[in-house]
Design a protein that fits this description.
The chain has two helices and three strands, in the order ααβββ. The protein has 109 residues and is an alpha+beta fold. The radius of gyration is 21 Å and the shape is rod-shaped.
């Protein structure tokens, strides 16, 4: 009887940590999707050596990050700052946060 109680007690905790671990992996995947979208947009701007938001709409539509909000801002050094805002969620503990990542391109002529 004692062995079965210990086994069930251990399994409950193992399953709880397993579910939380899978949720954390999901958060890493969400962050990776947003980061890959950002890198793709920056690479496209740098290859084209110009900034046209209409061309970049196709990249945001085919990305895996469907809840990402992309914004662009030019500075005085002819660099484009790409900012992506996206939600991170861990539904098992009802946790959610909006995250912002940003990066700049090389100077465009």
């Amino acid at each position: 009887m004692k062995g079965s109680f210990e086994f069930s007690f251990i399994m409950i905790f193992v399953m709880m940590f397993l579910v939380i671990g899978m949720g954390l992996i999901n958060i890493m995947v969400q962050y990776q999707d947003a980061r890959m979208l950002q890198e793709r947009i920056i690479a496209h701007i740098e290859v084209m050596e110009s900034f046209d938001p209409n061309q970049l709409k196709t990249l945001t539509q085919i990305s895996a990050c469907d809840q990402c909000v992309v914004s662009y801002q030019a500075d005085e050094h002819h660099r484009i700052e790409v900012t992506i805002q996206f939600p991170l969620r861990l539904p098992i503990i009802d946790w959610s946060i909006n995250t912002i990542i940003s990066a700049k391109t090389i100077p465009l002529l």
